[in-house]
């Protein structure tokens, strides 16, 4: 099957901006923030970098370049452990205000960013089955 067909337009609201993303429901994806149990939407940093607010964009660029800077407290950054086929990593995440698909909207999750060198994909934001279900995506 062609995975591109499963992408759908969505609006992700984070850090005071609304990002128009191509969302993809991945049934094999299921990352949660361990302390809160919050769901996580995975966002391709390279696809949204130019549209992020400067403080968040700078923090993420520095983090991905390995400088290990501390995040500005107002960003509310949390580090989310993630295991993929490529191994174990820790992803920087920020609280998301909302994700909208059509008239449906979900709240109470984190947006985690994957590294700029992540191979290009057809999706901008990856959702797990729980969030997709809340949005009426099957």
- Outline the biggest β-sheet: 6 strands, mixed, barrel
Unreliable spans are none
Looking across the biggest beta sheet, what order are the strands in?
1-2-8-3-7-5
From N to C, what is the helix and strand string? EEEHHEEEEEH
Annotation field: number of helices: 3
The helicity comes to: 10-25%
Arithmetic mean of pLDDT = 90
Structural class: alpha+beta
Shape: globular
Number of strands: 8
Q: How large, in whole angstroms, is the Cα Rg? A: 14 Å
Fold topology:
Blueprint: E1 8-14, E2 17-25, E3 39-44, H1 45-48, H2 54-64, E4 78-84, E5 87-101, E6 104-106, E7 109-114, E8 125-127, H3 129-134
Characterise this structure.
The protein contains three helices and eight strands; from the N terminus they run βββααβββββα. The chain is α+β, with helices and mostly antiparallel strands and 138 residues long. Strands 1-2-8-3-7-5 form a six-stranded mixed beta barrel. A hairpin with a 2-residue loop joins strand 4 (78-84) and strand 5 (87-101). The longest helix is centred in the middle third of the chain and has 11 residues, at 54-64.
Keywords:
8 strands; single chain; about 140 residues; 6-stranded mixed β-barrel; about 40% strand; globular; about 15% helix; 3 helices
């Amino acid at each position: 099957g062609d995975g591109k067909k499963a992408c759908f337009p969505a609006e992700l609201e984070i850090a005071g901006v609304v990002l128009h993303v191509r969302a993809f429901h991945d049934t094999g994806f299921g990352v949660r923030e361990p302390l809160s149990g919050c769901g996580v939407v995975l966002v391709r940093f390279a696809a949204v970098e130019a549209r992020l607010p400067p403080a968040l964009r700078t923090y993420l660029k520095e983090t991905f370049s390995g400088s290990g800077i501390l995040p500005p407290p107002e960003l509310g950054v949390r580090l989310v452990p993630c295991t993929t086929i490529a191994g174990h990593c820790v992803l920087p995440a920020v609280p998301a205000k909302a994700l909208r698909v059509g008239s449906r909207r979900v709240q109470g999750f984190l947006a985690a960013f994957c590294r700029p060198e992540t191979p290009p994909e057809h999706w901008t934001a990856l959702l797990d089955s729980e969030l997709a279900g809340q949005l009426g995506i099957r």
